[in-house]
């Protein structure tokens, strides 16, 4: 039978950035040698979320802005 490791976290939601970073560090401590792989996957997922939240720029407007400079 596979052993499942669990970790319970209590987060202070008034400090979201610090708490997220501390949570990542806590989880990474259980995966020595895989930190880079895990952080790259997290980076990819965060990048995808940022891309969906950022407003899309109109390529025609961007081109017009560059030609007027």
Give a structural overview.
There is one protein chain. The chain is mainly alpha-helical and 69 residues long. It has 3 helices and no strands.
Q: What is the H/E order? A: HHH
Coarse shape: elongated
Question: Helical amount among residues, as a percent range?
Answer: 55-70%
Proportion of beta-strand residues: under 5%
Biggest sheet record: none
Radius of gyration: 19 Å
Number of helices: 3
Number of strands: 0
First and last CA, distance: 66 Å
Low-confidence stretches: none
- Write down the overall mean pLDDT: 88
- Helix/strand/pairing category: mainly alpha
Attribute tags:
69 residues; mainly alpha; 59% helix
Topology readout:
Blueprint: H1 16-28, H2 35-53, H3 59-67
Quick synopsis:
The protein has helices at 16-28, 35-53, 59-67. It is mainly alpha-helical and 69 residues long.
């Amino acid at each position: 039978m596979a052993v499942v490791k669990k970790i319970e976290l209590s987060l202070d939601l008034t400090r979201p950035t610090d708490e997220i970073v501390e949570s990542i560090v806590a989880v990474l401590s259980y995966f020595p040698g895989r930190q880079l792989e895990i952080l790259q996957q997290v980076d990819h997922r965060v990048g995808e979320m940022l891309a969906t939240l950022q407003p899309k720029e109109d390529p025609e407007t961007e081109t017009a802005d560059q030609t007027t400079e």
